[in-house]
Amino acid sequence: MKTYVDPGKIPFKVLAIASALRDKGGTPLIVGGSVRDVLLGRPPLDWDIAVNMDPYEVLQVFPGACTVGIEYGRVSVGDVDVVSLRAEEDYLDKRHPSQVTFGVPMEKDLERRDFTINAMAWDPFTGEIFDPFGGLNDIERRTLVCVGVASERFEEDPLRILRAVRFKTCLGFNLDPELVQAIGTCKHLLSHVSGERVFAELTRILMSPAVYQGIMDLYEYGLSAVVLPELDKAPTQAAAGVALCRPDLAARLAVLLGITGAGVHDLKLRFGLPGKLVKDVEWLSLNCDPEIVLDNRTLPKGHFGLWKQSGGYNNDPGYIARRIIYHWGREQLERLVEVKRAVWLGLGKGGLPKGYLYLVSGLLSVSEADPQGFMKIALDGNQIMEILGVEPGRLVGEALEYLEDVVLQDPELNQEQTLTQILLEWWRKRT
Predict the structure, then answer these.
(1) Tell me, what's the pLDDT at 300?
(2) What is the mean pLDDT of the chain?
(3) How far is CA 430 from the centre of its chain?
(4) Phi, psi of 326, deg, nearest 5
């Protein structure tokens, strides 16, 4: 019995590309994850069109298309990929085929795909679903099954092992027993996959609402030992803590590292993490201990030690909150509060720790007023030089730092006239 799905679910731009290909003699079909997502009632993130034309014929239809990947039969028309029906052989680098043959039948093209739920095609004009490997039935059973022999699919590209866990986590599918057995046999091959590709899959797992199960699957299938050994130190606690955080990658990574006691620099080297993410995660993980306010190694020490001179926390949670916002931003403070709570609860502890409560109190006090009111000191360097009659140099920096501390302790003092009087008084005492 044939299955049909309304082509009206296909975006106009995708239909326009398919129509242009058909007008030139092609037989375009919607393939891949977009078909799966439509059948699951999910909005597709991207759209792929397969067509019985070689990539250079496609390029004649769309001469301005992006040709990155054309040797593998891929041409990108805007954000839509047009792929030539093809067969692939000999994945020598555990990712790319060393031999590609164009002009194969549709079923031959679909059989090279990873899972049956991704190996379906959809006629954009009639709505007919072509399903040679039982993907529709597997969607109905909510079971992830490899196309053909699971171990062969994983040997072609071991990243498919992590993709299996990601689909299980994000789609709520079960794993076919043969697939699970192949994971155990082939998991060591993940060491051949680039860190960037591995981290892309780990990110999707970490950002999933079902992240607890995703982390436990990584551990229970033995995959964390290969790609994320930090997790093996405290898998259950890490999974619980991360699941308590909103889907914020920096915060969830910081919780994982905070609970397991690992550092971010090993992850940076292994996965090629971007500098901004490393910086945020490092600061959060160093300060994630729920029983302290801030780690001394991260305190914003100025050139002239005014943090220390002003009494450190100054027994004022609002002051430390403003300090953090001034140097690192409000979002980072909110993240830190959430990270401390998640670490504490992930470790199975009850009550509320003092470091967490201190920061929550400070954050609440700042939120009652305009949080931007103290972010810019009312006097700048040029004004300070004019008021004090001094030349550019160390003295101006010292004065700016002093005024910064004054304003962070009491934002209401951040007025030009008020700060001028405070500056002059400071200058008299100093001289």
Answers:
(1) 64
(2) 90
(3) 50
(4) -60, -40
